[in-house]
């Protein structure tokens, strides 16, 4: 599938009608989502025929993209049942097969070879400091092959240091810097839209302890 085709399909997905500020629910736009998954597949072969988990899946954009790129199995995980309902309808609309799990990502105890690749657009940590790194810590324990994640570019050195030193990653690489268009979703947002520089990271987990 070509990048433009993937972006076009993702552009038709439904997003949060009533986003929850405490969960930092922001939609992952089709531009970023398509490039993230296209890169994961075409540069690293981390999607097709792989078991892929989407952490904090929201309305399912990243997981749907993985399914469209021929993932063997997609597990979409979110704490919010309303988001999972929208994600399920999005998958149905594009006729892709995915599993939806209502769970707090922090409670996942999967280890070993169940999941090859974790994809995620975690909370940036504006409401709960360090939330993105909490997600990354779990992702690096769950994935056997790679973790793809978005983090604010302003936190680049901190993210790299923490992943390599504290989370047992054996590699942490910024693949590209993207512009994340944040629409005005909440009352406390002053501007109609703001764009934030975000890094698309690929992390390689270290050997899992048995």
Summarize the structure.
This protein has 210 residues and is of the alpha/beta class. The protein has helices at residues 3-11, 30-42, 61-68, 81-93, 131-142, 156-165, and strands spanning 51-55, 73-78, 99-102, 115-120, 143-152, 169-183, 193-205.
Secondary structure topology:
Layout: H1 3-11, H2 30-42, E1 51-55, H3 61-68, E2 73-78, H4 81-93, E3 99-102, E4 115-120, H5 131-142, E5 143-152, H6 156-165, E6 169-183, E7 193-205
Parallel strand pairs: 1-2, 1-4, 2-3, 4-5
Antiparallel strand pairs: 5-7, 6-7
Helix pairs in contact: 1-2, 2-3
Outline the structure in words.
The protein has 210 residues and is of the alpha/beta class. 31% of the residues lie in helices and 28% in strands. The protein is built from 6 helices and 7 strands; from the N terminus they run ααβαβαββαβαββ. A 7-stranded mixed β-sheet has the order 3-2-1-4-5-7-6, with helices on both faces. Strand 4 (115-120), helix 5 and strand 5 form a beta-alpha-beta unit. It starts with a helix and ends in a 5-residue tail after the last strand.
